[in-house]
Amino acid sequence: MAKIFTVVSGKGGVGKSTFCVNTALSLGEKGHKVLLIDGDIALRSLDLLLNLEENLVYDWSDIICNRCDKTAAILPYNDKVHLLPAPLEMPDNLNSDSFKELIDVFAPDYDFIFIDSPAGVGELQQIYALVSNQCIVVATPDNVSARSAYVAGNLLVKSGVKEENLRLVINRFNEKAIKKGNFLNIDEIIDITYLRLLGIVPEEPKLMYSSVSKKGLPTRSEAKLAFKNIAGRILGKEIPLNL
After folding, report:
1. CATH code at 176?
2. Less CB within 10 Å around the terminal CB: N or C of the chain?
């Protein structure tokens, strides 16, 4: 039975979707079967990041509206990582019950499910979060992102998510820029967000395009190691929280 994660952010542009993709790929490399669900209705992007847009015919709204079976909507990236694309319009019958039924259909077939939520926290994000075992808040090391991550976490708790099921990922971490005082350091981000740290991903210009090329990140890439460590922590391994 899959362990389910909803990945959120307080604001857009923090790299939430690339986090989902690369964490899924790292878990896949460890032999685990992962389903990525694009939850960003109308603004889906995971099919583009995985270079699967030309194969897209159905999306998850077609399943909950009984227009296709579950296998027709799945897009395989490889034998371990699959994508369930988002619809371009809000389904009329989307609610917490119908989305839970969708998750229940796929949960027996996968080890992990990652739901890539839209930025911000509203009704849609709460629907996703409440069917999940854990929520991951992605933030970048700046005041605006850190504050919005705090707001996102706080709103999720008010909607019913337990505090112990919230984790923080700091993305696009540039150690040189932080030492110059241009961005927040790790302790400052944790102090602002009040979230427990899951991992730190260093800034990597090639990150967005690594999955599209299907070559992945270079073996010695610091970002690749960061995702490998995050995957290890998700699997319950004791891995030090550093770069």
Report:
1. 3.40.50.300
2. N
Reported pTM: 0.93
Total domains, the chain? 1
Tokens of 83: 């994508």
Cross-strand bridge partners of residue 35: 82, 113
184 within domain boundaries: yes
Residue 41 dihedral angles phi and psi, to the nearest 5°: -60, 135
Residue 239 lies in a domain: no
pLDDT digits (tens, 9 = 90+) for 39-54: 999 899 999 999 999 9
Residue 240 lies in a domain: no
pLDDT tens for each residue of 113-171: 999 999 988 889 999 999 999 999 999 999 999 999 999 999 999 999 999 999 999 99
Quick check: 213 pLDDT over 90? no
Q: Taking 80 as the threshold, does the pLDDT of residue 38 lie above it?
A: yes
Asked if residue 216 belongs to a domain, the reply is yes
Is the model's pLDDT at 182 over the cut of 60? yes
Classify residue 192 by burial, with Cβ atoms within 10 Å: 0-12, 13-18, 19+. Answer: middle
